[in-house]
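Follow-up to my post from last week.
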Amino acid sequence: MPKTIETVPNISEGRRKEVLQEILSAVASEPGGARVLDLSSDADHNRSVLTLAGEPEQVRRSVLRLFEIVLSRIDLRSHAGEHPRMGAVDVVPFIPVSGATMDECVQLAREVGDEVARRFSLPIYLYEEAATSEHRRNLADVRKGQFEGLGKKMQEARWKPDFGPTEPHPSAGATAIGAREFLIAFNVNLGTPKLEIAEKIARAIRHSGGGLRYCKAMGVALKERGLAQVSINMTNFRKTPLHRVVEMIRSEASRHGVEVVGSEIVGLVPNDALLAAADFYLRLESFDPTQVLENRLSNPGE
Amino acid sequence: MPKTIETVPNISEGRRKEVLQEILSAVASEPGGARVLDLSSDADHNRSVLTLAGEPEQVRRSVLRLFEIVLSRIDLRSHAGEHPRMGAVDVVPFIPVSGATMDECVQLAREVGDEVARRFSLPIYLYEEAATSEHRRNLADVRKGQFEGLGKKMQEARWKPDFGPTEPHPSAGATAIGAREFLIAFNVNLGTPKLEIAEKIARAIRHSGGGLRYCKAMGVALKERGLAQVSINMTNFRKTPLHRVVEMIRSEASRHGVEVVGSEIVGLVPNDALLAAADFYLRLESFDPTQVLENRLSNPGE
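User reply:
Got it. Predicted complex:
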């Protein structure tokens, strides 16, 4: 299996279409770079999210090119938007998809952080799995004070950047670079129009309500279909897998006399997350991913 | 997604290790060829099965190289073994794995059959999905009479080869080339030592007993584990999927007060077969394979 890492850099521009097009073209045409899978922009937030994936070295190249082009086109001194931000390139998470480990993503975050800091004199904070201390793990804490408060924040010892100068880049602020698990957006539809049932189930299954460790959930009314939905963000599908969420919802729903009528994956999902569900439901004994024919083909070492 | 086709050529040699090694090396080192995934030999049958996979053109190249080396090393006039055979290269099935259709495999069988017949003056019969008439669909019928009876059989109009001369190759006989679905070997273990329950269930689910169209099954006693097993060959996982077999076994077993305690896939399985199980059990609505991140990466046209 080749090592596949995903990255979803968030940049502080969601309005100027020609600038976004220029950034997209530069990143997509970088020689030896990663594959660009998506660009989503939000004008209210004045923010865009790029989705890239490939082998670690491809991802590294594309991200460096992204910093280069963004720093020449985006100036935070004239930026306003609803979404909190502290950098022109605001956040860069690296995510293991297949064949790559979290440790490799942490390593990549450090290498890219170091290189970006040196090349562009940009302060870098490592966050989540790449964080160098507990208080820097949560992105919201790292970004608190935003671009405008960065100069003051950096003077505190506990907020000295991990790489780069101890004052903000004049136009690009600072960037949080980190490593985290793939986030799966997953919705489960219930055979009832009653929103309160979806809300009760969401509270039962989510971490904050005493439920599953890597599960966020809320109830949503699908008015056109006359159904209530449990809308879920799964922040670690390896430790809190899809089937466990579905089975817990099924069990809670049955207590209200309601059935699970369907589910949907929003956006992308790693193959591994679906294979784990097949493994569970088929009750496979000692299943080995190298039994999947396609995995055998893509492994150059075999 | 790249087009991936598998082929499992059966050759009439299972004893002479040095000859097998020579054949394996030649095929594995063919420039622009397919990936060799496996070579299994049986001395009693005096027969070996190679497993190769790759894009159609890669598979074509490797199979042509295989004929070249086998025809120079194996002489059926001095061959004996328990398994029926009519050719030095006895059977070559092409199998769609992912991104490729059965029609493309039928087309490949015809092209390779035509080219092999011309290059090596070897008679070729097309069988299964590639068969040119119903009576040639079943491999056992095509091979009936074996190498020794070929000369006489070919004189009958209904057994005139599809390509090549109407008399056998002196040392290599004739070859059956065809197209068929991937065969999954799948076992389901029951929470009982009673073989008769596994046998009853096998009869209920298999095609010959009135069960599922693309399912062969028999009961087996796993004496060491003290379990009975339903041992299954699935000849078309797209039309008779894994989950339907498991659910039918679960239902039949519960009638005997027995549970399904586990299952196992023997050898390789296409990724699609497992994704279909995840889709079913998670009750996904409108799931699209392009939502699988890895599929997006391997599609050059996107």
